[in-house]
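Task: fold both queries, return C-alpha cells.
Query 1:
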Amino acid sequence: MTDPSGHMWKSRLFWLGFSLCAAIEIINGLHWLYPSIPSINVQHVNLQGQGVFATRPWNATGFTTYSFYPFAIGLGYLLPLDLLFSCWFFYLFWKAQLVTSAAMAWDVTPDFPFVREQAFGGYITILVFMVWNGRNYFREMWKRIWGEPSDVDDRAEALTYRRAAAGWLAGTAFLVGFMVWAGLSPLVAVAAFVIYFALALAVTRIRAELGPPVHDLHFSGPDHMLTRSFGTPAFSARDLTVLSFFYWFNRAYRSHPMPFGAEGLKAAKDTGASQKIMFWATMLAAVVGTVAVFWAYLHIAYSLGAQARMRGGGGFAGEAYNRLNGWLQSPTPPNGLANGAVGVGFLFCSGLMLARIKFPWWPFHPIGYAISGSWSMNLVWLPLFIAWIVKGVLMRYGGVRLYRQAMPFFLGLILGQILLGCAWHLLGLALDIVPYSFWGG
C-alpha cells in the first residue's frame, strides 16, 4: 500500500475488490435508512436465534454465529495457512468441548470445561516460548542495559534498552504504588501487574508474529485469575474492591495498546522513518486521546444522561460492580478445576508448539488454539474458513506467484468495507442520526 510505485493502486483486481465491498456497504447503508431497499447481509447471524442448536446438549455451544465479513476474508488471506486452519478448527474444538460437557452432565460444575482458563494457559505458553527462543537476544540486551559489551545495537531504536528498562521499572513502580495507595495489598498489586504484563507481552507477540484479527481473551485478566485461583476469602474486602477497578482495562484484550505501538514502530522502521519520532508521537497521541476520552465521556453523561445514552447505564461498569457484590456476598473457595484447566491449556499448547517446531507439515498452530476460544472468534471464524479455502486452492495450483497476484483483490475487500463503513459513520455524525454499522460486534 505504501509502495512508491503505486502498483496496488493501479491494479484492476484491487479496484474490483474495493468496488464489490463498496457496493455492498452502500446498499446496506441505504437499507438502514430506507428499509424498503433490500440488503445484502454479510454481518453475523446468531444460529441459536434462528432456532438452531436450541436443544440440549447442542445449546451448550452458546453464542454461535455465521457471517461473511469481506474485510475479515481479506485479513485472513494475509495469514499463514496453518493459522487459518487452526482458527476455525479450534473454534469448533472448543464448541465440541462444551457440547460434550453438556452431554455428559459435566457442566453441573459452573464454567466447565473452563475454556477461558485453558486459553489463558495457551497465552502463557506463547510467552514462555518467546522468552526461551529469544534467550540469546535477551541475554545480549541485558548486557547492553548494564553497559557491558554486547552484540546488539540499539542506537536506531525508539529508546535505548537502558532507557526502556528504566522507564518500565519506573512505570511499574508507579502503577503498583498507586494501587497500594488505593488500598490493594502490595503482594496482590505485584501479582496483578505480573499477570497483566504477561498477557500484554503474549498478545503483542501474537500480533507481531502473525497478526490474527482477534485476540480478545475476555474475562481472563488478573482480577479474574487471582480470585479464581486463590478464592475470594484469600483477599480482603478492600483488595477485592480495588481489583474490581482492573476491569476497565482487563475485561478484554482485543484493543490492547501495546500491539499498536509495536506495529507503529515496525512501520517506521520498514519505511526508513525515525522510530524515535514515531515513539514520541505515539506518546503524545496517548496523552491527548486519554484527556479527550475522559472529557467526552463525562460530557455525554452530563449532557445526555448516562443511564439513557450509554450501554447498560454507563458501559460495562455494572458488570464490575455486580461481580464485586458477588465476591463480597457469596465468597467462593479456590477453584482447583479451573487451575487444572490452566495447566491443561499450557501443556496442550506446549505440545502444539513443540510439534510445530519438530514437524514442518504440522497443521495445528498453537496461536490458533489460544485465540479461538475468544468471543470475537464467533464473528470471524467462517470468513477465516473461506479465506483458508481460497488461499489453499490458490497456493496449491498457482503457488506463491498466484497468491501475490491475487493479493490486491483481498486488500480491496479490506479497504472497501472499512472506508465505506467509516463514511456511513461520518454521515451519521453530520446528520445527527444513528448510522449504519458494518461491524456487528
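Query 1 returned. Query 2:
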Amino acid sequence: MPNPLLEVNGLKKYFDIRGGVFGRKVGDVKAVDDISFTVMEGEILGIVGESGCGKSTAGKAILRLIEPTAGTVRFEDKDLTELNAEEMRKLRHNMQIIFQDPYASLNPRHTVEKIISEPLKVHGMTSAAERKKRVQELLETVGLSAYQASRYPHQFSGGQRQRIGIARALANNPKLIICDEPVSALDVSVQSQILNLMEELRDKFQLTYVFIAHDLSVVKHISDRVGVMYLGRMVELTTKEKLYEEPKHPYTQALLSAVPEPDPDVVKERVILQGDVPSPENPPAGCAFHTRCPMAMDICKELRPQFEEIEDNHFVACHLYGDAQ
C-alpha cells in the first residue's frame, strides 16, 4: 500500500469577528471545524459540499496560504504548521495550487512566459535560457503552443487560461497539487478537456491531487476517494464507488439525489432538505446537520458525532451508525 503523502489531523480555521467602536473580537466564523483525512501518493481525493462549507478554506489552510487556527498538516512526515517562513518556502515547490478563477489568478500585466517562469526563478533556476525552454515545454504539455508564451492573459479563453494556471502549478515538478474548483468557471465542454488533461498529467508525472469541487459528477469522474463536507466539518469519506452507490450520511444522500439524471425515463427520488444552512458564525450544538436532517434524533441535538470508520475504508460522522462498532 502506498504511503500517505498528506496527513491532516484536527484542522481548524476560525476567522475573528470584530465589532464595536474599538474593533474587539466578538466571535468566530468557524470556516473549517476539526477535519481529518489522509491522501495517499498518486491518489486523487475529491472534497465536495455546498458553497460556503469550508472546502476552499481547508485547501488554502493545508498549504498555509492562510494560517490554520489549530491542527496538524503532515506532508512527507514534516509538520507544515511548525515550519518557519523560509523552511515553508523551500518546501513549496513540492506543493502547488490551481485556483478557481482563471481570470483573477493570472497577472494581466505579465506575459504567459513571465507568469510560468516566476516559480522557476523563485526556486533557483537562474538561467533565463533554461527557464524559457521549460516554459515552452510546459505550454506544450498542457495543450498550448510554445509561440503563445509572449502573449498576455486577456488574449486567451477561459479554458486556455486554466491550462496556463496548470502549467504554472507544474513548473517545479510538485508532488501534491490542490485543485480549488479548477473547472467551475468553465463551459461544460471545456471542463471535460481540462479534467482529461489533469488525469493524463497525474499518470505522466505521478502527481497527487486534492480536488475541491461542488459538482458531484465532476468529482465522480476524476476522484479515487471522496470526502463530503458540511458547515466546516467532514461528514463522510470513502471510495467513490461506495459513496455513489451506498451513501451513509443523510446529507450525502440528499446531495446525490440532486444530481441530474441524463436519462429522462429514470425517475429519481429526491431528498428535499428543509430550512437554510446555519451560519458558520453560530453553528448548531451537536451534529451541525441536525437542523435540516430528515432522520434527526434527540442525541443529534446534544452530542457531536465522532468521525469514525463504520466499514472498511468508509468513515462517517453520524449517530445512526454510532453503535456499528
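Both queries returned. Flag for query 2: The chain has a mean pLDDT of 88.
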